[in-house]
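Teaching assistant here, posting this on the class forum so everyone can see the example we discussed in section. The complex has two components, and the goal was to see what a joint structure prediction looks like when all of them are supplied at once.
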Amino acid sequence: MSEEIDFDAILGKYHSDPYDYVDICATHTGRISFRIAEGDVVNSPRGEWLHILGSPLFEITRERNQKLVTAKTNGTISSVRTELEGQFVEAGEKLLTIRHPLKKKEVIESILKEVLYLFPAPERAKYFFSLDIQSRIEKKGASALIIKPGDEIIIMSLMKRDTPIYYSGEAGVIHSVYFSPGVSVDQGQPLIGVCASDKLHLIQKVITRVKADWDKLVDPAHLEEG
Amino acid sequence: MAAINCPTPASLSAYIRQQEINSRRRQALLPSPETILRYGAIVGSVIQCHASMARTMDQARHHISELEQTGGSVASGTVILADTLIRSKGRFARTWHAPAGGLWGCLILADTFLPRARTILPLTLGIACCEAVRALGADQACVRWVNDVLFGGQKLAGFLVESFRNPHHGEDFHLLGFGININNNCFPDILENSAISLSRILGGPVNLHDFTLSFLAKMAWNIGLLAYAEQQELERGSDCNEESHLLIEQWKKLSDTVGRRVVYGYDIQQKPLYEARVIGIRPDGALVMQLADGHEIIEHSGELQYL
């Protein structure tokens, strides 16, 4: 991470376009039937356990197994590949895009994700810190804890099979934790954001600057408070 | 001090030939029992027996590392048994009471499984234990999702699966830890009402050696079933998680979880999360529950208590 951060450029980018564009791709091969159209508003999962599904996006059928795919994020459908309606697609084919309005908290997280090293989840599963790491975090806080490649930091739990996850990024402190014990994390989503300890002050600068400037830059009516 | 419970690979092999194959023949499954058991033949290829140790899972890690450091390689299917465990533990930081008389051990399997088989691997332990217990007459023993074995609401056996990557070569192993209360009839006060032993159920002592052979033979069968099903899927060119799985079907026959009202939690003792009714098991082993508001929720991990 550079010592020099152009805060105005970063904030200006989010000010001019305060949205995240989430591409939704085919989870596996199959025949597609869309349940939305461009411009439709879609909701993310709701309920105490996020158990009430988000808005239906499309159905994908493979080997007579029909699966409804629902929205994981709220927003507006900004594009749909309608030419794929009724067609057989390969896994990973982009099908549609959701334009998601960012909250202040999400903007901070989004900026941080650009400057932190993000350590991804290897599988869709539940995660918790290893007992040693957890007790060190509780005693001294995550920012006092330096992790390095090869450290056993997190336990992945799937069907009562606990797998230690060894850290493989750059050495540093755990700045952001993106998982909660008991909540499933999708494969590839970040588990933690790590920052070299001598760069921590820059991260703090980002947060302070966004908090101070965001409300001035963005029309309050446009964004929900984070 | 020499171990008391000392099964050998040869005695396990003889048990499988004389007992397990015949009992499985009566189940009339599609492939012959010999075919399935051939897939699971690695189970118990090496059996280490100890009088006492701290934890068999730790011993397994040490054994794998030690062998690889000296240029060797651990035999997949190695079983480590101990008559007593000094520092046994369950999931999280829970202690596990493991005095003499119980079956305490760990099975080492090299991670050669594809993702689906790896996901449902922990089910093999509960199934094998429940089958071995029922074979002795404890017909009411049931599996509670994921793999606890209960009798009359009391816990007869608990299992723990941990993965381990060897630091030298980066090879992955699954360590399948098992703790089955057989002839250990005295439990700490805190467990007195929630734990039970097989000898209490049957009203007399159980031959621990024979039970060990039976359990390991059934592990060989269920690991074999997992590997056989995997090969069938590969031959069909399908890894579809929506299709039924032989192991899940067997689990359903032995479990009383579906239909029960439960409390669910990731760590049920420390943090129970919600109450629900279990309405099904998905082909990938996930639990399908219905909340009070009528919505369904699917969990791939966590623990249950029956209400």
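For the discussion questions: The helical segments of chain B are 9-25, 33-39, 56-69, 115-120, 123-135, 198-202, 208-236, 246-254. The radius of gyration of chain B is 19 Å. Think about how each of these relates to the inputs above.
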